[in-house]
């Protein structure tokens, strides 16, 4: 079997991240920093506006790094929308009024991998996962990047998936995709989940152990690994988990949490978009297109639009 070569990526794929820059803002009211993403001078959402695929032909995906390996701050793509916060910046999670820090779980210090999110995916809390039988955790699909280099928060990496395991966390399904940066020296040697144990012995079991126990220091019960602890291979991830959680045959409108009633309908709806893995959402313009405008622009059927309006009526009203 021939290995994927980084040189085989198209110039458009290799230059994608260079077009995006990040600014840091300190929200005085929230007392925490926010990392905002920009493309050609306009704010974009790292969740909705960055394409899922870097190179669909070769099965290469973009991920947005939230927590670099070896760090403890619980950074994550935000979905709490207010007048001050929009476009899903990366922010530090708050627990009991304080910025959340993750405990060290042996044998690791800080986070055990470069942890990030797959844009344009969503583990739906209102839908039962067809593999685990438990609903999703209301977040983008998580990725554990296991390359040799420590990443930076907000960095966009091109990775190839190797496999996955399902964490059952407080009654929710939380898939962890194992992947490696295509630019990593080990990338050519890793083509599937079985190769990881050969070149990085013990890592996968340590990761599963870490995810089972990382909330215990906060007083929570241990998590468990679904599917009897089984590690799913690369093909399973591509043909099942990824396809299901970025399925464009179904409408994927992410209803953001805690939408303030003081915001106008147009402003509130502009923060939820239909994501397309084939064509990334265009960066928002100054007056923010609403979700309904977005649906019509992408020629979504009248039946789906009516269904959307019905389901979202509780937000609008």
TrEMBL record:
Residue ranges, compositional bias (Polar residues): 259-280
Organism of provenance: Penicillium hetheringtonii
Cofactor(s) recorded in Swiss-Prot or TrEMBL: Mg(2+)
Similarity comment: family membership: Belongs to the PPase family.
A cellular component term, taken from the record's GO annotations: cytoplasm
PANTHER family (UniProt xref): INORGANIC PYROPHOSPHATASE (PTHR10286)
Gene Ontology MF terms: inorganic diphosphate phosphatase activity; magnesium ion binding
EC number: 3.6.1.1
Annotated keywords: Hydrolase, Magnesium, Metal-binding
GO biological process: one example: phosphate-containing compound metabolic process
InterPro entries: Pyrophosphatase, Pyrophosphatase_sf
Protein name: inorganic diphosphatase
Residue segments, region Disordered: 247-286
């Amino acid at each position: 079997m021939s290995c994927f070569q980084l040189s085989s990526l198209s110039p458009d794929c290799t230059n994608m991240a260079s077009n995006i820059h990040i600014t840091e803002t300190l929200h005085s009211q929230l007392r925490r920093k926010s990392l905002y993403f920009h493309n050609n001078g306009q704010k974009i959402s790292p969740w909705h506006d960055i394409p899922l695929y870097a190179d669909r032909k070769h099965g290469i995906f973009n991920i947005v790094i939230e927590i670099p390996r070896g760090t403890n701050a619980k950074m994550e793509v935000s979905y709490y929308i207010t007048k001050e916060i929009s476009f899903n910046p990366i922010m530090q999670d708050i627990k009991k009024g304080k910025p959340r820090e993750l405990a060290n779980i042996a044998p690791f210090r800080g986070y055990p991998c470069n942890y990030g999110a797959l844009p344009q995916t969503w583990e739906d809390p209102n839908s039962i996962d067809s593999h685990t039988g438990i609903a999703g955790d209301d977040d983008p699909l998580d990725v554990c990047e296991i390359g040799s280099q420590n990443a930076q928060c907000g960095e966009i990496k091109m990775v190839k998936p190797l496999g996955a395991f399902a964490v059952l966390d407080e009654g929710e399904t939380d898939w962890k995709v194992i992947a490696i940066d295509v630019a990593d020296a080990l990338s050519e040697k890793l083509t599937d989940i079985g190769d990881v144990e050969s070149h990085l012995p013990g890592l996968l079991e340590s990761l599963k152990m870490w995810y089972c126990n990382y909330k215990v220091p906060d007083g929570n019960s241990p998590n468990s690994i679904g599917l009897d602890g089984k590690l799913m291979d690369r093909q399973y991830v591509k043909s099942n988990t990824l396809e299901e959680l970025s399925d464009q045959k179904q409408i994927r409108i992410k209803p953001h949490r805690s939408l303030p009633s003081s915001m106008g309908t147009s402003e509130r709806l502009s923060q939820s978009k239909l994501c397309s893995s084939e064509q990334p959402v265009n960066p928002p313009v100054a007056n923010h297109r609403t979700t309904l405008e977005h649906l019509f622009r992408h020629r979504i059927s009248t039946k789906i639009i009516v269904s959307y309006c019905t389901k979202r009526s509780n937000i609008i009203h």
